[in-house]
Amino acid sequence: MPKTLDGQITMEKTPSYFVTSEAPKRIHSMAKDIKLIVVVRDPVTRAISDYTQTLSKKPEIPTFEVLAFKNRTLGLIDASWSAFRIGIYALHLENWLQYFPLSQILFVSGERLIVDPAGEMAKVQDFLGLKRVVTEKHFYFNKTKGFPCLKKPEDSSAPRQTLTQPLSHTYSPFSTSLAVYLSP
């Protein structure tokens, strides 16, 4: 983790931490008073999402039905399928509660994050002991994606030429050297 100055909070995001059995012990050994934020979704929606993402990378995988069921006729779910197991949130939470009290863990609803992002962010800011600065005005609905997104700050456009020109000047001899190496 990067060092943090007074008044700063270091945040790190890895979706697999919550479901990785070794993670709670490892994280606890680094920082016992850490605050954990877990975004959860309806487990069925999450399993379908996991499947469609995998399918987009590996079109040859079996159908959702084949992976999700041991026996479709009897309705027997394949509880060993990773996309199913990830959604058994209580099982994963039990592992974390061996190292962290529930008061150090905030669960954020993925569904609420879509319909009320500012409300969910208010909970996050309160949990972290921060002033509520992220509000409704910081979000817009992205029609292409079909969910809310953060607005970019007005001054977040491309850096001004007064900043880029010195960089270009400094890079110039290195770019020339590279061109010499790459020329036929």
From TrEMBL:
<keyword id="KW-0808">Transferase</keyword>
<feature type="binding site">
    <location>
        <position position="41"/>
    </location>
    <ligand>
        <name>3'-phosphoadenylyl sulfate</name>
    </ligand>
</feature>
<dbReference type="InterPro" id="IPR000863">
    <property type="entry name" value="Sulfotransferase_dom"/>
</dbReference>
<feature type="binding site">
    <location>
        <position position="49"/>
    </location>
    <ligand>
        <name>3'-phosphoadenylyl sulfate</name>
    </ligand>
</feature>
<dbReference type="GO" id="GO:0008467">
    <property type="term" value="F:[heparan sulfate]-glucosamine 3-sulfotransferase activity"/>
</dbReference>
<dbReference type="InterPro" id="IPR037359">
    <property type="entry name" value="NST/OST"/>
</dbReference>
<dbReference type="InterPro" id="IPR027417">
    <property type="entry name" value="P-loop_NTPase"/>
</dbReference>
<comment type="similarity">
    <text>Belongs to the sulfotransferase 1 family.</text>
</comment>
<protein>
    <recommendedName>
        <fullName>Sulfotransferase</fullName>
        <ecNumber>2.8.2.-</ecNumber>
    </recommendedName>
</protein>
<keyword id="KW-0325">Glycoprotein</keyword>
<dbReference type="Pfam" id="PF00685">
    <property type="entry name" value="Sulfotransfer_1"/>
</dbReference>
<feature type="domain" description="Sulfotransferase">
    <location>
        <begin position="30"/>
        <end position="154"/>
    </location>
</feature>
